[in-house]
Records
---
Amino acid sequence: MHYITVHDKTFQPFLSEMEIQGAVRKIGKSLNQDYKGKQPLFIGVLNGAFMFCSDLLKTVDIPCEITFVRLSSYDGMESTGEVRSIINLQEDIAGRDIILVEDIVDSGLTMQKALTYFETLNPKSVAIASLLVKPDCLKCEIDIKYCGFEIPEKFVVGYGLDYNGHGRNFKEIYQLRQE
Ligand code: IMP
């Protein structure tokens, strides 16, 4: 097994590049069908979703735009449950079809807070596309319309996901090693 070390922790391979790219293509295909004739605005959530956004947009062949925002509720390996702020949305999203692109939904609090905020700006619709979802960790009801993988309650890194800032650069996803 090809283990990696990030800071003080060891991680084991979890999702291969091929599995990830397959899931990304599948989501892209659904979006192309569902948003045919529309011009959605993708809103990528930084930093974690940068890689997913980049690969996802390459599979989208309908007219669309992309922008990025920053919001966070995480500190190290724990969700603080408190979203700090939503920074950098300059686009007018009133009347637009919005697709929020997230790397992972854990407690769901980040996305719930983001949804509440975006809804005050009167978009036509808002859907969430998240590469990963940890269903056992959800602390609120949230509709993840486009999901790549449902994964167990274990910390993961790679493909944009970090552990204290490191590990985002791997093209695969690694899971905290079984002790
Ligand atoms: P939530 O608000 O608890 O759903 O947390 C969502 C955010 O926490 C994501 O955007 C990630 O930045 C971070 N996060 C949650 N789980 C993990 C993980 O397993 N690895 C890395 N980051 C994570």
Note: The mean pLDDT is 92.
---
Amino acid sequence: MDISIVVPLYNEAESLPELAAWIERVMAVNGFSYEVIFVNDGSTDSSWDVIKRLAAENPAIKGVAFRRNYGKSPALNTGFARAQGDVVITMDADLQDSPDEIPELYRMITRDGYDLVSGYKQKRYDPLSKTIPTKLFNATARKVSGIHNLHDFNCGLKAYRNKVVKHIEVYGDMHRYIPYLAKLAGFNRIGEKVVHHQARKYGKTKFGLDRFVNGYLDLATLWFTGKFGGKPMHFFGLLGSVMFILGFIAVAVVGFGKLWDMHHGNPYILVTDSPYFYLSLTLMILGAQMFLAGFVGELVARNSPRRNDYEIEEDLC
Ligand code: UDP
Ligand code: MG
């Protein structure tokens, strides 16, 4: 099979027939063999009925329904597990992404050798309250992930080599960082294609402004686990040691300073009257805590059943 199209959706009943017809048209014109996997993320409208009807009309249309609303990432992950096509395309169900982009995305994966191609909504039809924070979000994501050529990490329209979706796990709200997940899994041929974007025709957006707060927290998590997940001591141990040593030096200076002054008959103040005493106390306590956090982290990492799971690309043994 050439293409699997994975569509996560939550209350998008009005859009679905139009989207399915449009996909069918593009696939027929280009002669692709394909499947569409609609993942119904616990919709409370008639989305699932619509999907069942569409599936009855066209055997290429498939669906899977969650019992409740889990979020876009779990929906994508479920679709990925089922995808059989050589190239996997994800797109939003709200008709903001155009199926007309699919042939070119397919070509970029199969001919140009990309592992992942992300859409770039260069001209967006979204409110300003969304586009401005998005710019900031993408700049940060570029910096942290080291994927400097992407302008639009969270674009719903993306194409993947089948192997990529089988080797990444999208959970929580991590769909915003799939290119980063792919890179962490060792897929680094990541490209971008400018895509057309349309205003939402039916229904309303499912994400509020909290997406940006949560987005940054998730980015911090990914960065940390990607860099130190397997060796937390390298982060906490270093930080803790530096803090402890600084605190120790400072307290030593305060203590010896006083003894020196006493010995030479100079006026002196109580150690506890010096602000540096409290600063060094804080540094030493926090430093020791950091160090311990590193140890506990190492114990956790040591017990992970996946600590020696490596992706082996080729093996001549
Ligand atoms: N979506 C989903 N589960 C959710 C929220 C959203 O499957 O809990 C789907 C939604 O139906 C749409 C896609 O994710 O197909 C993108 O959502 P939306 O269009 O609301 O996001 P926006 O375009 O505003 O970023
Ligand atoms: Mg949308």
Note: The pocket of magnesium ion (ligand 2) is lined by residues 92, 94, 96, 200, 205 (CB under 6 Å).
